From TrEMBL:
Start and end residues of each Glucose-methanol-choline oxidoreductase C-terminal domain: 429-554
Protein name: GMC family oxidoreductase
Domain Glucose-methanol-choline oxidoreductase N-terminal: 143-329
SUPFAM superfamilies from the UniProt entry: FAD-linked reductases, C-terminal domain, FAD/NAD(P)-binding domain
Keywords of this entry: FAD, Flavoprotein, Oxidoreductase
Family: Belongs to the GMC oxidoreductase family.
A single MF term (Gene Ontology): oxidoreductase activity, acting on CH-OH group of donors
InterPro entries: FAD/NAD-bd_sf, GMC_OxRdtase_N, GMC_OxRtase_C
Source organism per UniProt: Peribacillus saganii
Family matches, as PANTHER family: LONG-CHAIN-ALCOHOL OXIDASE
Length: 572
């Protein structure tokens, strides 16, 4: 029998960016917060001398243990889903700080178009522009309403960046200057400008200079070591929950973190949550943590799983399009790219940082006319100087043998002579791309696994081809001798091929309970003292990385939670 613990004001299910921001904001106001974290405690000391590509990048040291909990996957409803046994297309973080520990630090605000995508699309192109089966909907909040929360996240993280020169793009003043210009970013910018585009340095959570944020947290500048994505930062230069918001919460004395603890269910009765049921994975003991407010703040996938296993909210039915939990799962298109090989140029590709790069937004959102195009939205086109580690980076021009003398010679020659121009595209929701509970497979605790049903649509394939063509154009202008272009003839979505960890949707926000799980404060329509911030709240995915929008929504949720604790009831 589960042991019932003393009641707290707030319990968070997960202690990453969302749980950390909410803990920091509410403990400063005097509220007691308990954070339940499935993984272990983490600190910058864990990463001293930890530049081990095999351990972290290839063997996924910081990711969720798939032998205990995974997902099942299929391309369509006619097929049987099978368990995902090896990390591939996306990576779910584990431990205090969550995926906010192993991210690259590329930090963008979603566009005004994103928050009102249905209204703005219909206004400009008419309803017939939206293809059958595409479930576009507005978010129930506008960019202007979100702007103050974006500002709070930027100031907390100390984002380094510069204004986007594209006409019509939001003008953002970042707390710190952009990261350094390199020969790679300079070459890209010059080529893009010659083609009439508007390049700029991407906003970075890897600090360009020493910085102290409004909470008094001081961090040092990035050292450009090249070990960001899939790694923790031993300098603390990369913004993460462990070096920004969690120290603030802990300093108040009002915050407690319980590690190695997996939440199985949110307990509820008569439309109100009473707390959570969790398991201490070291002992197998079960506990009930009562709370006035429950915050489901885990990774996007786990948020959906917890709600479905808790029987909170109406599960989505893809056949009728009714129901809401599991609806609008969206990934990210990332195959419309171009890799260039340079016979006459050599670069230092082993130094770098996770968000050191430049990009254009000329083909993102609705900045360009889609009237004669057979897709909606778009994507960013960017060149990054991440620091190419030796195991995963061994590119040779098309037509090179995959072994033997010629392969070795070209591998050596092109090791510092190849660049990739990546195009990260939006993923828009469709009626038959969704998440539910698997009827066959269970996790280590006996709960059903999540089942993902997802595949690329014509929308995705055409967008990726368009971005691939544009990427090739810029790469040729940069002077590449050989160009390997992506985006053509996109096959089925391959869950084994890593693209991004930008999973979104499934517990979406909106303007009504008929079409969404959450209101604009990320409060559940069906259970007023449950809030579910995170990328699971996105009704679609943009051409940008999600973290800045996740963080801004977490600040808004924290504001809403305080209002709820004072007045109760629905906040909208």
């Amino acid at each position: 029998m589960a042991k019932t613990l003393p009641k707290t004001d707030i319990v968070t299910v997960g202690v990453g960016w969302v749980g950390g921001i909410i803990a920091a904001e509410l403990t400063k106001k005097g509220y007691k917060v308990v954070g339940i974290e499935r993984g272990k405690e983490r600190s910058t000391e864990d990463y001293f001398m930890a530049h081990d590509e095999l351990r972290y990048a290839e063997r996924k040291e910081m990711m969720q243990d798939m032998s205990k909990e995974t997902i099942t996957f299929r391309h369509d409803m006619k097929k049987r889903a099978l368990p995902y046994r090896e990390w591939g297309s996306f990576l779910i973080g584990d431990g205090v700080g969550g995926s906010g520990m192993h991210w690259n630090g590329q930090t963008f605000r979603f566009l005004p178009y994103d928050f009102e995508i249905y209204s703005k699309t219909v206004e400009r192109y008419g309803k017939d522009k939206i293809p059958a089966g595409m479930q576009l909907q507005d978010w129930g909040i506008t960019y202007d309403e979100m702007a103050p929360y974006f500002d709070k996240f930027d100031a907390m993280a100390g984002l380094s960046g510069e204004a986007n020169p594209l006409p019509g793009a939001p003008q953002i003043k970042y707390p710190t200057p952009p990261m350094i210009e390199t020969p790679v970013t300079k070459l890209f910018k010059e080529a893009a400008k010659k083609l009439g585009y508007h390049p700029y340095h991407m906003p970075s959570a890897n600090l360009s200079e020493n910085y102290t944020n409004p909470d008094g947290i001081s961090r040092g500048a990035c050292q450009y070591c090249g070990f960001c994505e899939r790694f923790g930062c031993e300098y603390g230069a990369k913004a993460s929950p462990v070096v920004t918001v969690l120290p603030v919460a802990k300093k108040t004395g009002n915050f407690e973190v319980r590690t190695h603890s997996v939440v199985r269910k949110v307990l509820h009765k008569n439309g109100r949550a009473t707390g959570v049921l969790y398991v201490d994975t070291r002992t197998g003991e079960e506990f009930i943590q009562p709370a006035e407010v429950v915050i489901v703040s885990a990774y996007q996938m786990n948020n959906i799983k917890i709600l479905l296993n808790s029987q909170l909210g109406k599960p989505y039915d893809p056949k009728t399009g009714t129901g809401v939990v599991g609806k609008n799962y969206a990934y990210q298109t990332y195959l419309g790219r171009a890799r260039g090989f340079f016979d006459d140029k050599e670069f230092n590709l082993y130094g770098g940082a996770g968000a050191l790069g430049a990009q254009i937004d000329d083909f993102n959102g609705d900045f360009f006319d889609h009237t004669n195009l057979d897709f909606l939205h778009g994507g960013t086109m960017h060149i990054t100087h991440l620091g190419d580690r030796p195991i995963a980076n061994n590119w040779v021009p098309p037509g090179t043998p995959t072994w033997g003398k010629e392969f070795k010679e070209k591998s050596t020659f092109y090791a510092n002579r190849n660049l990739i121009l990546a195009a990260q595209g939006a993923s828009l929701p469709f009626q038959d791309n969704y998440i539910d509970l698997d009827p066959t497979y269970k996790d280590a605790f006996g709960d059903p696994l999540l089942r993902m049903t997802f595949n690329w649509k014509d929308q995705d394939r055409k967008l990726q081809k368009f971005l691939g063509d544009k990427s090739e154009e810029v790469m040729k202008e940069m002077g590449a001798t050989h160009v390997l272009k992506g985006g053509d003839d996109i096959k089925d979505y391959d869950i084994r091929n890593y693209q991004s960890t930008h999973n979104t949707g499934g517990v979406i926000m909106g303007a009504s309970p008929e079409t969404s799980v959450l209101n604009s404060y990320l409060q559940m329509w069906d259970c007023e003292n449950v809030f579910v911030p995170g990328a699971s709240a996105f009704p679609h995915n943009s051409g940008y990385n999600p973290t800045n929008t996740v963080g801004a929504l977490a600040y808004r949720a924290a504001e809403g939670i305080e209002k709820y604790l004072k007045q109760g009831g629905s906040l909208v």
